[in-house]
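seq/struct pair 1
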Amino acid sequence: MKKISGLKCVNCGKESALAKVRYVCPECSGNLQVVYDYASIRKKLTRKALAKNLDPTIWRYLDALPIRGLKHAVPLQIGPTPLYRSRVLAADFGLKGLFIKDDGRNPSASFKDRAGAIAIARALEEGEKLITGASTGNAASSLACLASVMGLRTIIFVPQSAPVAKIAQLLVFGATVIAVEGNYDQAFDLCLQATAEYGWYNRNTGYNPFTREGKKTCSFELLEQLEWRCPDKVFVPVGDGNIISGIWKGFYEAYLLGLIDRLPKLVAVQAEKSDAIKRAHETDGVIRPVSGETIADSISVSIPRDGQAAVAALRESDGFAISVSDSEVLEAIKVLARAEGVFAEPAAAASIAGLKKAVAAGQIRPGERVVALITGNGLKDVASAMKAVGQPHRIAPKIEDLRRLIGALDRPGAPL
C-alpha cells in the first residue's frame, strides 16, 4: 500500500515492511506502529478538503487510514460523536472551557467501534472469513456488532466477570462467546493461542497494529469539532493503553500534516488497582503487573498490552497520569449524568473522576481548554450505575402511602 511506509516497533524501534509482518515485531514481539508517507498524505488531507467532504464518519479520514478504499467500510455510522461544551461541571471545576466527547453514541455504544471498523476492513481485504478477539466487553461487542453487518463470523473470548449487558450484545449480534474462567489477561492469552492454532484473524488490542489507527480518528474528529483549536489537555480513561496511544497518534499526525500548530497534553486516568501505566510513567517506564481489580471493567487490566506505547504518549505529550478509586468513579457516573445529561459506564466516567481530582490538586489552570473523553454508554453496566444511585422508592398503590413518602422527601435534608 503506497501510503504506508512500513511498521515500526514501539519497543525496539525495528522497522518492517507491511507485506512481511502481520501482527507484532519479528525481533522482540513488541507492538507495531503504522508509519505513513506523510508528505504525500499532507497534499490530500487538508482542512480545505475536509471542509468539502460530505461523509461525516471516520471514513472521511481514509487518506490516513491503513485500508485501500471503502469497499469493506462498515456502513454503520461510526462518528461523529457529540462534543458537548460543559456548563455545570465547567463552573463547578472553575474551568472556562470544558468539553465532553461522548463516544458512547457509536453503533455499539462504545469508542471501540473506531478500532473494530478498521480491523474488520483489514481482515476482509486479506480475504478472512472469521475474526477473533479477547475483551472485557466493549471491544468484543463492537466487533460482533460490526462484523455481523459485514458477514464475518466472530469468536469472542471474555473473562467470566464481563457485565451481562455486554454479553447480551455479543449473543444478539451472533458471536460465538467463550467465557473464560479467569481474568481479561487469561482470556487474552487464550485468544492468542487459538489464533496460532486455528489461523483466525486476530483483532486484539496491543497485538493487531491497526486498532490504534481507528482510535486516532477521534483526535481528528475532535479537532474539527473545535474548529482546529487544539485543546490544552485531554483526559482519557486507560486500561491496556491502546486508546491513549491512538489518541496521541491522531494528534501527532494532525500536527505532522499541518492541520494544527501545537499539541495537547494527555492525561491517563486509571483505576487505583489497575494503574500499571501510571506507575511505569512515574518511575522507570517499565510495565509491571498489578491486580487489575476495579468496578470499571473496561479498564480492568493486570498487564497493559499496549502499555509501552501509552507511556510514550504521556511522555511525548508532557502529560501525566492519575488514579481514581471505585467510589470516585461511581460518584462521577452520577455527577456527569445529572450535570450534563451524559450516562457513562464506570470506565468512561473515570475521565470525569480524574479531572475532578486533577483540578483539586492544582494540575489544571482555570483558563485551559480541557476535553474529557467518555468511552462507553452507561447502559453497558446498569448494575454498577445502580450502586451509584441506589434503589427506587417502593410503596403500595395507595394515595396515603404516596402522601407519606412525599412528606418525607420534602423534609429538609431528606434524600431524593
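seq/struct pair 2
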Amino acid sequence: MKQLGIKKLYYSISEVSKIADLEQYVLRYWESEFEQLGPAKNRAGNRIYTSRDIKLILFIKRLLREERYTIEGAKQVLKDYMSDAETGEQLELLHEGTPSAAPSTQAQPPKTPENRLRNDMVELKRFLEELLVKLT
C-alpha cells in the first residue's frame, strides 16, 4: 500500500523527543520557561503535542542551539515575534534556506479551551485539505 505521509494530530512526549532530538526533561523544562509552549494534557495527565507545538519546539531549539541565544534572549525573540502579528494562525514550518528566518506565525491568543479547539480545528482542516489533494 502506498504511504500517504499522514500526520498525527497529537504526539506523545517520547515521540516529540525523538522528532526534535531532545531529552524529555528538556521539553518539560522549556515548557516551564516559554509561555508560548504549553501542550495540552489528556485524561491520564500525559502531555499531548500538536504539530504547532513541535514546530515551536524546533524553532526554540534553533534559537538556543544554532543561533546561540540565551534562554532570556530566546524568550525576547519569541515575545517580540508573537506580539508583531495580529491573528491566531498556527506556526508554519521554518524556511529551510535562511538560517535567521523566523517562522511565519501570528500572535497566540490566550490559551483557553476555545482557542485550543480552534487551533486543533484549523490543523485538522489543513490535514484534510492535504489528504484530499493527495487522493485526487
